[in-house]
Predict the structure of Outer membrane protein beta-barrel domain-containing protein.
Amino acid sequence: MYKTILALFLFTLCFSIPQVFAQRYGNALGLRMGSNDFSRTVGLTAQQRVFKHVTLEGIVQSDFDRNTTFHLLVERHRPILSKRFNYYLGAGISSGWEESFVKVPETNQIIHTYGNPTTGVDLIGGIEMTVANTVISLDYKPNMNLSGREEFFRGQVGISARMVLVKGKEQDKKRRKRERERRKGKGRK
């Protein structure tokens, strides 16, 4: 009962705060550690804010043995308590080389294959916090396989630590400056 009340409180809090904030960063680069039933992976993650509350995230991850994947995700960020603490939801595509397990029903034998080129669709949901120019995030990233792997669904929990390369204020300032210059250029014609 306590967990249900807490979840309802957090859900209400998330949607009752005015959505006037944006993330504290324009782009960030760092490391991601992921874990699922088949492997533990380490990789690079990069995020670039493209619109207010919207980022593109690229992830390259590998277990340095049998699984290497590439992911491109579009994410929508919303503040929870401030612009330094967000939750986000998104979707994207993935590709890579993965191991696969096929169970033969007649013999109950499991056939394990390696190096399968895969393509899939990813969803992602998580929370992130920006502290001292570092973005720490915890996410869940389910993957639906379209080709190359026997299993249709694999979920992965990930923890990322990214260093802020360009702050959101700096990115907004540069964007406004470009817009002013563009308007001035149109006014001269």
Notes: DSSP finds two helices and eight strands in the chain. The longest strand covers residues 109-131. The helical segments are 2-16, 168-188.
